[in-house]
Amino acid sequence: MDILSLFILVPIITILALVFTKGLKQARIVSMIGSLIQFGMAINLVFAYFKERATNSDIMVFIRDVVWFKDFNIHYNIGVDGISVTLLLLTAIVVLAGVFISWKMKDLPKEFFVSLIVLSIGVYGFFISLDLFTMFVFFEIAVIPMYLLIGIWGTGPKEYSAMKLTLMLMGASAVLLVAILGIYFNSNADGGALTFNILEIAKVNIPFEVQKLFFPLTFIGFAVIGALFPFHTWSPDGHASAPTAVSMLHAGVLMKLGGYGVFRVAMYLLPEGAQYWSWFFIILATIGVIYGAFSAIKQTDLKYINAYSSVSHLGLVLFALLMLNKTAWNGAILQSLSHGFMTALFFALIGMIYERTHTRDVRKLGGLLKVIPFISAIYVIAGLASLGLPGFSGFVAEMNIFVGAFEHEDMFYRIATVVSVSAIVVTAVYILRVVGIMLMGPVVNEGFLTLEKVTWYEKLGILLLLIPIVGMGVAPLWLSDMILESLHPFIQGVL
Amino acid sequence: MIPEISIYEILTVTSILFFIGVYGFITRKNLISILISVELILNASVINFVVINKYLYPDMLQGVVFSLFIIAVAAAETALAVSIIIGLYRQISSVEVKDVETMKH
Amino acid sequence: MNFVNIILIPLVPLAVFLLLGIFNQKIKPSVSGYIGVAGLLVSTLLSLNTAYQYFFVNGKADGVYQTFVEKTVWMNFTDTLAIDMGVQIDPISVMMLLVVSIVSLMVHIYSRGYMKGDDGYTKFFAFLSLFSFSMYGLVLATNLFQIYIFWELVGVSSYLLIGYYYTKPSAVSAAKKAFIVTRFADLGFLIGILIMGFYTGTYDFETLNNPEGSAILNWASTSFMGLSVLTWALILIFIGGAGKSAMFPLHIWLPDAMEGPTPVSALIHAATMVVAGVFLVARLFPMFYFVEEGFALNIVAYVGAFSSLFAAIIAITQTDIKRVLAFSTMSQLGYMMLALGVSGYEGHEGLGYMASMFHLFTHAMFKALLFLCAGSVIHAVHSNYLKDMGGLRKYMPITNITFLIAALAIAGVPPFAGFFSKDEILVAAFEHNKLIYFVGVFVAGLTAFYMFRIYFGIFWGKDTKYEHKPHESPISMTFPLLFLALLSIIGGFIPFSEFVTADKAGFEAHLNYPLAAIAVGVGLIGIALAWIFYKKENDLANKMVNFFGPVYQWTSDKFYFDEIYLFITKKILFDRVSAPIAKFDKKYVDGTMVGIGNKTVLTSEKIKGMQSGKVQDYAFAFIAGVVIIALVFIYLWTD
Amino acid sequence: MERIVFYILALIMIVFAVASVTSRKMLRSVIYLLFVLCGIAGIYFLIDYNFLAAIQLTVYAGGIIVLIIFSVLLVHHIEMELEIAKTSKQILTTVSCLLGLGIFLITIYSHEFNVIENSLTTTTSEVGTKLLSYSDGGFILPFEVISVLLLAAMVGAIIIAKGNKLTDKKDNPA
């Protein structure tokens, strides 16, 4: 068995094992063991990747290619480069943290963990696929369990949110499918057979007219899940209604599929289309960055604040991708990772606060630093990380994006960059507002004085997410170099 | 064949009959009237069978035989339809289409 | 140079921070105080050693102080641009090391007494250490990005320390305000860095500042809106510096920042962090001086002069002693900025630069001393307001004396430290720009006046009846006072021009006796006026207030700048931008998406009726369909 | 002569067909249909398919119409007026029917029929032979199938018409 297929296989085995469990205790132990194995595999993969990379200079390593559906030349084709490796690691960590955070899942725990792990299969598969069709299949696998997870275990208007989220993502999938087929049917532009293989298509000179037509479709198809303005509206409602672990996974990992897809498919396969359209999507992304930040200021629900903050941060990912240069792309990948950890951490903390105080309305909270100091302190740290404080991952990512974006000579792009940079101030405003109202100040509610202290599994979940944030922020060199190296073939393809 | 009468004229008449039947089928609101319209349509097509047999392939009999079959089937159909109508009338005391719309919604 | 020792200077406080931060609950408060002080003591000794080595042993080559750099790549941006982490040793960084070390150590010691019994004792020392680490990193930075990184860290430690009394809403909002205002300024800084990096291809100070380097020689190659892009970059970077150094109009956070514990005010908002802006300009001084013939430097000079005047006027009317000191800080920072602004580069021409650094050094000592004295007073009377004080000289003799020394130093009375540095500044200004010189002299007078106003108000004047009899502070608090007072007395005699100059060569600076006499005279007039108004309780002051009427009111309300900013942020940004965007999102963007969904449901609801179950309807549709298709395909399509 | 007869027959058929589908009296509508069916029988006579004409008269005019009349009498009062469709629907239907008719006619008239001049008379025995022939082109199998179908229809009709009573019995075993 090759090292990558295990990422699909282990969750499947975990699910099978979960089927035979009874009750919360067994279910969570099994899921924890499964996720721990995944986590171990992800770490092992990083080392294996470095080892392989030393001798192997292909674009992708650990490639495995099995014909899946012969008539249409669909393959089960997997492989990774530095970018997917880091994203796999992100996924493994967030899933594991998610399991810890759901330690006390009361309703239908078995089904919950099964859905959660099905979701993770989709994400793993998406990150390792090198075949457009397989990629699309995994994309769908990742999206569908979302409906169940929100619809069944959510809070508030959960059916509405679940429906909205699923419908919008499905709509995007429909657009995406058209785009993928469009690419497929033009993959023989230089002669040869039609293929879904990304690496093969990248070598083909797809005609400019075709690129112009299909780039926006591909981009929008992926960018909806990356919360591109104005297709972001599923995200606040979805996040607000979802249970904690699902919010974490969704914002932390699932939304990254958007940026990754844009990068792997739209940018890599349709570079001329990307150049042709970049100005237009730059405008949308820039609006998203500013708009998300400003929207977050006026929200009162913690999850909404975080959801809009995600819109802003992920807008920055798309913004960087559209800048079409190595530094900005490096920033985009780093930002994906960084946002993945940070937002997962945020949602975990919000979940803990909600569990204790039974409200997410900032106006009803206050003085939490006094009563639950650990959670509050971590919230402050997460907030500082989110506003791009040096020493945390967000800073590293944002600086790469800004420096990269500024490399673009064109005045229009410069202005867009300056506008996006100004989001760091607005971000500070909404983060500090929440910190000020919710954590500091006098304790507003007598009931808060007896809040339960943080438990060991919550601490574990938090630390799992916090360590990478700090690690990336303090010593970014190895990570950013690893990504930069993997970006080389891409940037050569594009420019 | 009919002396002095071309196939066009006959086909014209049958077409007219056919569309009258269609018109009736669509506009009438009563099951029996609809049955009547169906009979018109069937008859128009039967004539076509016969006429084309006669005018174009006079030494064959397929058209005639088919006409017989159609008439037989029409008879069976009418019998069944009438029994259904009567059964329905027993149940709901009406043979109006609008009262039999339980399939809708 | 022994770089291991130098790198340890910031790392020791960092280690202390991590230790205290992670084991916050487990460490006894008394122990954590010792750990904090010990950590900083190590750093201070190392700094002193570094200074000695640099200035007296091996720093000089051919009469010029060398720049030593040791760095490692932290992150790569492009093939040419990268963020390095490292330490740069040159006169100003070594001088700053001393300033930070001495003040920080004194504040650490002082805090052991001042913060005694506070809930967050350990946390406080952790934050102090974090701040010290960041500040060391800032002064040792080798490049723009590194300085930006520590700049932000300094900002956040300031945020944490201002908001230290986090249950007090005013402290929370002050912390938030400080962070956001400086963050806003940092936005300019960051954009400046981006521009600078892009056009010069480097972030390194050494490369940038080299007068023969390509960055300075080619400043005219690209221009934007009539000015060199590098000028724009420098102006933007100066905005960052102005934010941290509370220059007008980004000064509004500094008075509010006094909500923090007083030792914090002494360390961060008087001596170290707020001079970061001055340090930044000094750091990039060759660029400021050479690019576009010092266009950006002129801006620095005027902004500095105006801020200095503006703050001195406001300081006269404030009644909270810490706020008086805050505005005084702002005013003195403006002084340093204006000194930089009027400076030349080589030899004696660079007097302003040297004077600015000199003033930075002396100011750090006496202003920290003033704050610590104020802290001691506040500790004794439990109030920040002048009206609650008076006649304290009897109860707190040491505080009285040290405060007096500091006040004399800031008023520029010889032989205290302030006299020398201020004199150099005024000489430099006199030689370059008379207008700025007059502003400087006027401010010197105002400074003396407001400083002695609070001095007399606190220690003389009316004999307030105290609920608890005030008493002198413990030794842990008075020792730093005495130590800093000593430095305030002797600090002025350091031959600064030998060590810290723009071209690093060193020159002989002499007192300019006529100008010095004028400055001292103006200072003495200020002190005399204060004596008349405030020495004994009388109503002269009230008469003056009535005389100036609305002007006094404006000044005392700080010319309503807070209100203007509040209006812009609350009314315009929050209510006119943010709220509508949030509403727009819910109503239109989301509305459109939901609308599409609802329309789909509605449409299906509508066309569901077509599936009526009536065979007749189907037949009609069928016939009509067949007819239309036949029409289209047979008769229209074919020809 | 035949021409005149044909036109008269055609006129009768069309007029009565129209009357049949527009009349608001059920019974009249059935009687008009009877006239149409008779007219069709007339056409069969004209083209010399006497057997077919006879079948038409007996099965249709004699059998089916009577059946329908019975059902009408069973379920209707003779005076009852029928509902008619909405005018808009009538117009729409008319339009599409006319359009369809137009298409039919244009198609028919634009096609060259390969008419073979003849005056052959078909005897009943020929038809019978054809129906019962099991050689090539024989119709014995459909013939049998139709027989079974008629039987099945008969049984079905009886069961449907009696359906209520059967269920009644089941419901009330006593």
Which characteristics define this entry?
heterotetramer, A: 495 residues, mainly alpha, 21 helices, 2 strands, 75% helix, globular, D: 174 residues, Four Helix Bundle (Hemerythrin (Met), subunit A), 2 domains
Radius of gyration of chain C: 30 Å
The largest beta-sheet of chain A arranges its strands as 1-2
Percentage of residues in strands of chain A: under 5%
Low-confidence residue ranges of chain C: none
Distance between the termini of chain C: 94 Å
Topology, number of strands of chain C:
6
> Low-confidence runs of chain A (pLDDT<50, min 5 residues)?
none
* Average pLDDT score of chain A: 86
| Subunit arrangement of the protein | heterotetramer
Q: Which term fits the overall shape of chain C?
A: globular
The strand order across the widest sheet of chain C is 1-2
Helical region count of chain C? 26
**Largest sheet composition of chain A:** 2 strands, antiparallel
Structural class of chain A: mainly alpha
Q: Any idea what the radius of gyration of chain A is?
A: 21 Å
Shape of chain A: globular
Q: What is the end-to-end distance of chain A?
A: 37 Å
* β-sheet strand percentage of chain C: under 5%
Computed structural class of chain C: mainly alpha
Summarize the largest interface: chains and residue counts.
B-D, 74 and 85 residues
Share of helix among residues of chain A? over 70%
Characterise the protein shown here.
The complex is a heterotetramer of chains A (495), B (105), C (639) and D (174). By secondary structure, chain A is mainly alpha-helical. Helices cover 75% and strands 3% of the residues of chain A. In chain A, strands 1-2 form a two-stranded antiparallel sheet. In chain A, strand 1 (61-69) and strand 2 form a beta hairpin. The longest helix of chain A has 33 residues, at 23-55. With 105 residues, chain B is mainly α. The radius of gyration of chain B is 17 Å and the shape is elongated. With 639 residues, chain C is mainly alpha-helical. In chain C, the strands form three sheets. Chain C has a two-stranded antiparallel sheet with strand order 1-2. Helix content of chain C is 72%, strand content 4%. Chain C contains 26 helices and six strands. Chain C is globular, with a radius of gyration of 30 Å. Chain D folds into two domains: 1-96, NADH-ubiquinone/plastoquinone oxidoreductase chain 6, subunit NuoJ (Four Helix Bundle (Hemerythrin (Met), subunit A), Up-down Bundle), CATH 1.20.120.1200; 122-165, no CATH class. Chain D is mainly alpha-helical and 174 residues long. Helices cover 76% and strands 0% of the residues of chain D. Chain D is globular, with a radius of gyration of 22 Å. The interface between A and C is large, with 58 and 50 residues.
